[in-house]
Design brief:
Order of helices and strands: EEEEHEEEEH
Bound molecules: D-MYO-inositol-1,4,5-triphosphate
Strand content: 25-35%
């Protein structure tokens, strides 16, 4: 609970690294670059840390802020078209950014898919 991005859900999901690629920004296609990100889910947002959250909190350099993705109005779906990798989910935000998240471990990514979808479905009400 707490941290730079506000309240985060205290669930096991929080401790997962996922492969992440931002492929579209504001409707513009980006060059795909997969990186490993430490992902945290809040009630209405996702946070991507470049390093583990523990490291991020210890270092707390101004440039170390996590990337925050607003889930209000976001679409979350499985995709087979956007990558040759297996188990890829696509998040399309209301401002036209597209992110891919992937894990080789299906149970892991499947839990994230459900949790992010649920957060997105509920995020605009508050
Ligand atoms: C990309 C890189 C990505 C691949 C992507 C390539 O090449 O191999 O891993 O995505 O495929 O363009 P580069 O490093 O030269 O940018 P996947 O691993 O998700 O398939 P894409 O262009 O079909 O998205």
């Amino acid at each position: 609970i707490g941290g730079p991005g506000g309240a985060e859900l205290s669930v096991p999901l929080q401790s997962t690294y996922l492969n992440k690629a931002k492929i579209v920004e504001g409707g513009k296609k980006l060059r795909k670059n997969w990186t490993s990100a430490w992902v945290a889910l809040g009630s209405d947002h996702l946070l991507f840390y470049k390093e583990s959250k523990q490291e991020a909190l210890v270092n707390m350099k101004p440039g170390n802020r996590p990337e925050e993705v607003d889930l209000c109005g976001a679409m979350v779906e499985w995709t087979k078209e956007k990558s040759s990798r297996k188990h890829v989910i696509q998040i399309t935000t209301s401002v036209g950014d597209e992110y891919l998240l992937q894990s080789d471990d299906y149970p892991t990514i499947s839990k994230w898919h459900s949790a992010i979808k649920m957060a997105a479905d509920r995020s605009c009400s508050g």
